[in-house]
Each structure stands twice: as C-alpha cells, then as structure tokens.
Design the sequence.
C-alpha cells in the first residue's frame, strides 16, 4: 500500500513548543500530529452520526407526535445506571 502525506503546516513557534512539551517518551512530533488528526476524524464522524440520530429522532417524534421530557429521559438513564451498579456490586 502506498502512503500519502499531509500538507505541510506552518505554525507559531509557541504552538510547536507546546506540542513538543506534551510528547510521551519516544513519541515523535509526527506521530503526535498523526494521532491528533485520527482523533479529530473519529470525533467529527461520531459527532455527525450523533446529529443524524438526533434529527432522525426529531422527524420520528414529529411523525408520531410522541415526545419525552428531559426528566423522563434522565429518569430512564438513571434507572439503567442504578441497575448496572447494583449488578456490578453483586458480582
């Protein structure tokens, strides 16, 4: 498989120094930048999917006329969390 390069990026010396200051032992600046780009790609895809699910839910709610209050949703989530915690404590 051939590899490709990302465009060169000119930054302020302060930004480069800040990036270098958080490198892990043995980590190169190139590896840090690559990992950062991968993380942003994952974040943006996840965010886009979340928004798509929200818009689909809105469309479904408008179609059916069924809506839930934030209290109902949070109550359901709290119940699920409490059940998981109880199960974990019993194990």
Sequence:
């Amino acid at each position: 498989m051939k590899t490709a390069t990302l465009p060169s990026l000119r930054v302020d010396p302060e930004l480069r120094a800040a990036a270098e200051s958080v490198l892990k032992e043995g980590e190169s600046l190139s590896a840090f930048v690559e990992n950062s780009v991968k993380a942003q790609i994952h974040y943006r895809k996840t965010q886009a999917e979340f928004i798509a699910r929200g818009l689909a839910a809105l469309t479904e709610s408008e179609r059916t006329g069924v809506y839930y209050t934030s209290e109902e949703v949070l109550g359901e989530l709290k119940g699920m969390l409490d059940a998981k915690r109880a199960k974990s404590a019993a194990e």
Observations:
- The mean pLDDT is 96.
- Residues 13-19+27-90 form one domain.
